[in-house]
Backbone:
């Protein structure tokens, strides 16, 4: 089985996110890029599916973005056990999910993957669309929010998370594009051997030409507070004094 | 024309769809155009009867045995056909899990942009801009469309169902659904619920909620001690459950429990929308986070900027001493 895993480089939670002088993008120079959370679950799921399937199965990590931001992402995937990597170079900031999906599908079509796994949502753009869009563009079956998968011959059975504690099983024929919800498995850490071996693995770099976007950012801005909040800062001791007063006298909960 | 698509949630119109109806009426007023409401698939007749009271130009139903059970294949095909025939300028839906599952397929089939999870709309004299959260909700953006049509999904509470204008549809129509077995490649089984033999956080008066910011499982006892000192139930964000630190029934959010305690005391939770929808009904929110830009502070009554691992043990000690 030939499996692609889409892994995206996104700003880490700790990174400071500041609007740059253009007003429509962030200052990338102060940002530390890491693998999008649900994508690391998708990678682990792909590795486990491969290990169970055996034979000449293959896991390919695929990323799209600028060279500077994505370099760690592919290395990490290869170190964890992916067989090869595809880097689709795109130095412009493409925020339109349909455009992103078209770049992916144009570049991946000839690979004829049986399975494409992606994260359910990128934590920076938060569109929650890319995996499904690619599935449709490549005429694959699709499912989202997978929290369990079982390969059964030429089909894959997926347990989907629905809202408020409900679930549903869906059986899909291959080829299939499935987006993975966090918590589906326990992502592994790369081994030392894996890290060493990663350097010798095949990495294909593809160029993507800039495409026109059907939706684009006019500007970026800091959201307004919904509530007027009382700000409490200082050293831990003084914060504790304030908190005691709030809990005891204002909220009367202790 | 704008088209609102109603989703059936176990026999009732999905609450997000009601908000989409309110959005649809607002769009129709602002853009001076017709509003059509589409009932699709599962239990169409029930949906239709519930939608009889909304002011709209048209109520359309799309019914077929092959979509009596939801499937992304069936729904995306039928909605694409409806859009091709009626050419609505905007298709409006709630940003539900079902919409996440099938609407991108429609976007790709018809090459119409899908702006998902919109928090507000600026009608901008006929050329609307759509706001959404980006970069982990630390920033928001305003989005512009460069095509004639768009699919739009709204985050919960972007519009209020209280604003729905009562009335009746100008006409009621049935859409002629064209589906064959070969259109449905996947096989969906009935929805089910898993018994969560855990605590009921919905009745708790005090909740101490922990997020990834507590840094490691070893710090849980420290947090538990504070909860014990306050007489609070411990709750958490999703990553804490994903990593196996706490059982799933402690999770608050769109895929966990929805709580409304007197005090929601959050420690090291960033405040992603999927978490916030589960706790924004709390009477008071006190949040500790070391990042002063954390989105949780947007809805906090008390915003403590500091290190939770430093503050919590001291606070616990103080509370215990004061007893
Ligand atoms: C469809 C879908 C459904 C989801 N359902 C849910 C759900 O039901 N519930 C849910 O919670 N999430 C849910 N999520 C995930 C959600 O989007 C967020 O990823 C998640 O809520 C983040 O959890 P967190 O705040 O604990 O972690 P992070 O976002 O990693 O935040 C950690 C925070 O801790 C702070 N911090 C770090 N160290 C310290 C310290 N020492 N002291 C103080 N602060 C510190 C950081 O500044 C940061 O703000 C869902 C996502 C999707 C896409
Ligand atoms: N630039 C990218 N590189 C790699 N994967 C991506 C990229 N953009 C989106 N994806 C994949 O698509 C998923 C959903 O992203 P989104 O539609 O942006 O929320 C992500 O979790 C990734 O798996």
Residues:
């Amino acid at each position: 089985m030939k499996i692609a895993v889409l892994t995206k480089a996104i700003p880490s939670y700790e990174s400071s996110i500041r609007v740059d002088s253009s007003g429509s993008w962030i200052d990338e120079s102060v940002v530390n890029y890491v693998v999008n959370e649900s994508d690391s679950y998708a990678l682990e799921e792909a590795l486990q599916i491969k290990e169970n399937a055996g034979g000449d199965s293959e896991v390919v990590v695929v990323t799209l973005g600028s060279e500077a931001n994505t370099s760690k992402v592919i290395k990490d995937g290869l170190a964890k056990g992916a067989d090869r990597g595809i880097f689709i170079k795109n130095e412009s900031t493409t925020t339109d999910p349909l455009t992103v999906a078209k770049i992916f599908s144009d570049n991946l079509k000839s690979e004829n993957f049986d399975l494409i796994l992606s994260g359910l949502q990128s934590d920076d753009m938060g569109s929650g669309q890319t995996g499904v869009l690619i599935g449709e563009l490549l005429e694959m079956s699709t499912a989202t929010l997978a929290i369990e998968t079982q390969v059964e011959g030429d089909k894959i059975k997926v347990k989907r998370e629905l809202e408020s504690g409900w679930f549903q099983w869906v059986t899909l024929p291959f080829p299939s594009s499935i987006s993975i919800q966090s918590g589906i498995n326990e992502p592994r850490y790369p081994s030392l051997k894996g890290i060493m071996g990663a350097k010798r693995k095949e990495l294909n770099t593809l160029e993507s030409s800039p495409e026109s976007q059907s939706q684009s950012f006019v500007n970026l801005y800091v959201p307004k507070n919904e509530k007027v909040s009382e700000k409490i800062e200082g050293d831990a001791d003084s914060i504790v004094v304030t908190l005691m007063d709030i809990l005891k006298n204002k909220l009367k909960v202790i | 024309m704008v088209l609102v698509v109603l989703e059936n949630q176990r026999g009732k119109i999905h609450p997000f769809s009601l908000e989409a109806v309110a959005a649809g009426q607002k769009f129709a007023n602002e853009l001076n155009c017709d509003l059509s409401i589409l009932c699709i698939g599962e239990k169409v007749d029930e949906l239709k009867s519930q939608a009889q009271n909304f002011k709209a130009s048209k109520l359309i139903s799309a019914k077929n045995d092959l979509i009596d059970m939801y499937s992304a294949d069936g729904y995306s095909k039928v909605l694409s056909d409806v859009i091709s025939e009626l050419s609505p300028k905007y298709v409006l839906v709630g940003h539900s899990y079902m919409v996440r599952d099938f609407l991108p397929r429609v976007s790709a089939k018809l090459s119409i942009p899908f702006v998902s999870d919109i928090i507000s709309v600026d009608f901008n004299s006929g050329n609307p801009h759509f706001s959404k959260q980006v970069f982990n909700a630390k920033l928001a953006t305003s989005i512009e469309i460069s095509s004639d049509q768009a699919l739009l999904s709204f985050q919960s509470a972007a519009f209020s169902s209280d604003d729905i204008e009562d009335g009746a549809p100008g006409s009621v129509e049935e859409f002629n659904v064209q589906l064959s077995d070969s259109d449905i490649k996947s096989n969906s089984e009935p929805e089910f619920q898993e018994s969560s033999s855990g605590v009921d956080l919905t009745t708790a008066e005090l909740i101490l909620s922990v997020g990834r910011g507590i840094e490691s499982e070893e710090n849980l006892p420290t947090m538990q001690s504070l909860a014990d000192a306050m007489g609070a139930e411990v709750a958490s964000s999703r990553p804490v459950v994903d990593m196996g630190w706490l059982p799933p029934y402690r999770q608050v959010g769109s895929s966990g429990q929805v709580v409304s305690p007197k005090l929601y005391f959050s420690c090291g939770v960033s405040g992603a929308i999927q978490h916030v929808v589960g706790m924004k009904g709390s009477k008071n929110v006190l949040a500790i986070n070391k990042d002063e830009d954390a989105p949780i502070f947007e809805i906090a009554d008390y915003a403590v900027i500091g290190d939770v691992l430093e503050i919590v043990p001291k606070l616990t000690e103080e509370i215990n001493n004061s007893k």
Notes: Chain B touches chain A through 93 residues (CB under 8 Å). Residues A 6-8, 36, 38-39, 63-65, 97, 100, 118-119, 121-122, 125-131 surround adenosine monophosphate (ligand 2) (CB under 6 Å). The longest strand of chain B covers residues 114-122. The mean pLDDT of chain B is 96.
